[in-house]
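Handout, page 2. Input:
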Amino acid sequence: MPSRSLFLVDAFEETAKLIRIRATIYVEREGQKGILIGRAGASLKRIGTEARKELEEILGTKIFLELFVKVLRDWRDNPQLVRQLDWHLQLERLTGE
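Output:
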């Protein structure tokens, strides 16, 4: 089974010239964290750069993207936690829909 990760936006701040996004990527094992970060942070930097560029293209503004990687053991096996971290549900709560 391929390793999976969860991406969760922790903070989103919008100004006239810039959007600041702080997000955490959750993985289930310490080894996955090391792979995702890479040697001297190279993999995480590449992931962040590509994501930032894509977001800038979509949103049409400058993006400051700050990424963190944390281990949350067996998050996929906890239905309550999966519901809590479900981005669809979070979006519905934020928009009131």
